[in-house]
């Protein structure tokens, strides 16, 4: 085994991609800040039990765990930053008037990689609105996500909505299902397995067809006779979609569950044309307080690597070679105009060696 190998699912970020990812992150964070989302920076590692219990119905099977030699307690490397935001909002910022708007960016580590996303380490960035999960809050969160991606240069954006608690609502109301069959029903609806759904609860079969372009799928879902149990959710979903029309493409898959295990009434995945898999996701959820109180929240997360690898963030270099003897004031002026200047440090240095596209002459930059 060579010492230069990295564990499976991990990789070095080299120039210019590390610089591009940093600029992408900066633009997303600037857009979030402009909407009142203030940045927090939680630690990479926390006590496992705290991370596992902060979000209602959350799963932590993807967390890398180990025993802390100092405290002898189990620690976890965060697989997602949302639970940490919830902890901060529920403890250190519990006194803050609600809703509280927080943003974040940093690395997360998965225990296992997904088939379409082999990276176990990712750069995650996003916004969380703690204290509300209303239609107005959802409209803001979805709008900020789209605006941040647009500011970062991402085009051809699409959003796929889902209703994570749909089956639970129907099973407890108009279409009862035995409690021991609900998990299997959700799984088969997610897989669009009509035969299996028919065997478990045939009344749910129309939900498989209620997926596709947003308006048509929404109409099919409205026509689904649920005795009014879904009316408020469908009205809210329509209002959220209305705020995004003309900005992004919209689809609806009401029974999509993968990755939405802790979301409550609404969830969404974000895609960009030409990129395999999602570049972000979001939705409503519940933050658990130390005293057992539950607090609604909603937010989104974006994944910098997926965006950069998709080619949406520009990677071309524009570097200006500054030969020995050049006027320092002129080089400083070029930097002020947005140039990256690379100074020669000895007579043998060349623009090619420094990956420069231009050279600084007395009259200004000259393209090579």
How is this structure best described in words?
There is one protein chain. This protein is α+β, with helices and mostly antiparallel strands. 31% of the residues lie in helices and 24% in strands. It has 12 helices and 16 strands. It has helices at 17-34, 48-53, 82-90, 135-151, 166-171, 182-190, 194-200, 206-209, 214-223, 231-242, 304-309, 328-336; strands at 38-39, 45-47, 64-67, 74-77, 100-109, 121-130, 157-162, 212-213, 249-252, 263-272, 280-288, 294-303, 319-322, 340-343, 358-361, 364-367. A 9-stranded mixed sheet has the order 1-5-6-12-11-10-7-9-8. A hairpin with a 6-residue loop joins β3 and β4. The protein is elongated, with a radius of gyration of 24 Å. The model has no long low-confidence stretch (mean pLDDT 92).
Summary keywords:
alpha+beta; 9-stranded mixed beta sheet; 12 helices; 16 strands; 24% strand; elongated
Q: What is the C-alpha radius of gyration, as a whole number of Å?
A: 24 Å
Sequence of strands across the biggest β-sheet: 1-5-6-12-11-10-7-9-8
* SS content category: alpha+beta
Low-confidence stretches: none
Strand content: 15-25%
Q: Specify the biggest β-sheet.
A: 9 strands, mixed
Helical content class: 25-40%
The total beta strand count reads: 16
Q: How widely separated are the two ends?
A: 43 Å
On the 0-100 scale, what is the average pLDDT? 92
Gross geometry: elongated
Along the chain, the helix and strand elements come as HEEHEEHEEHEHHHHEHHEEEEHEHEEE
Count the DSSP helices.
12
């Amino acid at each position: 085994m060579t010492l230069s190998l990295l564990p499976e699912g991990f990789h070095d970020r080299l120039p210019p991609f590390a610089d591009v990812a940093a600029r992408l992150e900066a633009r997303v964070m600037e857009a979030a800040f402009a909407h009142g989302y203030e940045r927090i920076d939680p630690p990479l590692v926390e006590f496992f039990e705290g991370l596992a219990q902060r979000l209602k119905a959350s799963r932590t099977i993807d967390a890398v765990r180990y025993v802390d030699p100092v405290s002898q307690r189990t620690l976890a490397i965060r697989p997602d930053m949302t639970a940490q935001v919830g902890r901060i909002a529920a403890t250190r910022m519990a006194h803050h008037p609600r809703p509280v708007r927080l943003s974040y960016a940093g690395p997360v580590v998965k225990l296992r990689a997904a088939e379409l996303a082999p990276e176990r380490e990712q750069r995650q960035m996003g916004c969380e609105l703690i204290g509300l999960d209303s239609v107005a809050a959802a409209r803001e969160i979805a709008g900020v996500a789209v605006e941040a991606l647009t500011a970062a240069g991402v085009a051809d954006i699409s959003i796929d909505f889902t209703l994570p608690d749909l089956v639970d609502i129907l099973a407890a109301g108009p279409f009862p299902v035995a409690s021991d069959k609900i998990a299997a029903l959700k799984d088969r609806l997610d897989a669009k397995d009509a035969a299996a759904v028919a065997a478990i609860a045939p009344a749910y079969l129309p939900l498989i067809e209620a997926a596709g372009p947003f308006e048509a799928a929404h109409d099919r879902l409205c026509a689904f006779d649920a005795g009014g149990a879904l009316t408020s959710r469908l009205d809210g979903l329509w209002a959220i979609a209305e705020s995004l029309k003309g900005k992004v493409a919209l689809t609806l898959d009401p029974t999509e569950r993968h990755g939405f295990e802790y979301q409550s009434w609404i969830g969404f995945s974000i895609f960009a044309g030409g990129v395999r898999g999602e570049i972000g996701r979001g939705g409503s959820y519940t933050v658990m307080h130390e005293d057992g109180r539950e607090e609604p929240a909603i937010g989104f997360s974006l994944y910098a690597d997926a965006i950069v690898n998709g080619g949406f963030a520009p990677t071309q270099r524009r570097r200006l070679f500054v030969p020995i003897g050049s006027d320092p004031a002129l080089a400083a002026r070029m930097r002020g105009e947005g140039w990256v200047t690379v100074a020669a440090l000895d007579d043998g240095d060349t623009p090619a060696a420094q990956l420069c596209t231009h050279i600084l002459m007395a009259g200004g930059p000259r393209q090579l």
